[in-house]
Amino acid sequence: MLKAILLKIFREGVGGLMAFISFLTSPRKIKRTPDAQLEADEKAKTMSMYQYFACPFCIKTRRTVHRLNVPIEYRDAQIRGGEHRNALEREGGQIKVPCLRIDAGEKATWLYESNDIVAYLDEQFDPEVKAAKASV
Ligand SMILES: N[C@@H](CCC(=O)N[C@@H](CS)C(=O)NCC(=O)O)C(=O)O
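Above: query sequence and glutathione SMILES. Below: predicted holo structure tokens.
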């Protein structure tokens, strides 16, 4: 019991430190024309990220969101019994973060795995990745 508590404190401490370092070394935001930014903002409104503040995989995806300069809503899934944690388990299928919820009309897609989330967001919002894909 004590060991589990100490381990949790250690994990949260290291995660918190990583989040702080990540904040200090935030990547530069992509700049867009006002129209392109408006379009990106609208698309981002259909997405939300279920995450924990101090999870290293979540920090990685948050850095991508920051770089891509899009207003994706973050939902804290750490609180046991909390609304977002319950939704993640019930609708997404498992409690694992980060998870990107993508709403399209009635249907929602729950994308797990930080690498897949980063690749998906780059495809949606990074002009260079979009251009490279279009030229293939
Ligand atoms: N391979 C996954 C690993 C994700 C992962 O292990 N997340 C941990 C938090 S750091 C988790 O959700 N654990 C389940 C839990 O806390 O209940 C990724 O890259 O997204």
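The pocket of glutathione is lined by residues 52, 55, 57, 95-98, 113-114 (CB under 6 Å).
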